[in-house]
Amino acid sequence: QVQLVESGGGLVQAGGSLRLSCAASGRTFNTYARAWFRQAPGKEREFVARITWSGGSTAYTDSVKGRFTISRDTAKNTVYLQMNSLKPEDTAVYYCAATGPNPLKYDYWGQGTQVTVSS
User: Of 112, 63, 53, 55, which is closest to residue 83 (Cα–Cα)?
Assistant: First the structure.
């Protein structure tokens, strides 16, 4: 099993920045990639960003490109999401996720952290 714990959410004004962290523990050795998803009230959960654990390749949804940066610290087994130029539409619960050996399936999820952007 893999445990994921997010932190760093909060309330920020539009145009501001936040950095989310996701610390992993447990059997993380076969994790292919980690990602951030988000879910706004009344909406479905959506993909935000992804990073492969070994090579550090990244991918982003179009709405956050140029504003958000996903990174990893392999020594700390932690993934980060740096969020700049935040907009009210970024308001959501942000979830960290990790794949197992299947790179297409996210088997592990954190509990989520609330991000609220005021206008």
Answer: 63
